Amino acid sequence: MSTDTAAGRDTWLSGLVSVATTFALVAVLTAAVALAVVPKVLDGAALTVLTGSMVPTYDPGDVVVVRGVQDAAAEVQIGDVVTFQPVSSDPALVTHRVVDKVFSSEGTSFVTRGDANGADDAPLVPAQVKAVAVYHVPWVGHVSLWLGARRGLLVAGVAGALLLYAAFMVLRPERRRAAGTPDASAPSPAPSAQVVP
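RESULT FIELD:
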């Protein structure tokens, strides 16, 4: 195999690795923005769907990004998907669609139902409604649920992969040749003979 063929293959391979890692990095950064930054800006959260009560809108394993509400009576309308506490003192959350908004002498209340459910949930007072769904990201929740307590392992793995990629990019032969540093695998120039008269 000639040196030119090996160099061409190495260049092609490093180009492929560069494209793949760039794509992976962009995907990870996009997911981080969609699932961490945007919810913070919206005063909300990214919540993983655990049950099929909202199928086909949200499947188990989807992540729903919600924005917090200050005045549910004014902000929430029929048709909105809301996240609420079924029991006011319980931190458990449920995400269902508002199917009715009732005005009475006791104030406003909401009736919700999961899209896949046949029966309405118990009526809610505005204080129980914590957020409104903004968008969802399919399947990402499966990864989050699988990682569970192993999130630290993921962070360490991603950091290690990024360090290896950085080392590869800095130490690759093309970069050394472009910078004028001689490549150890390149043949050294033959010494020139000087003729003395």
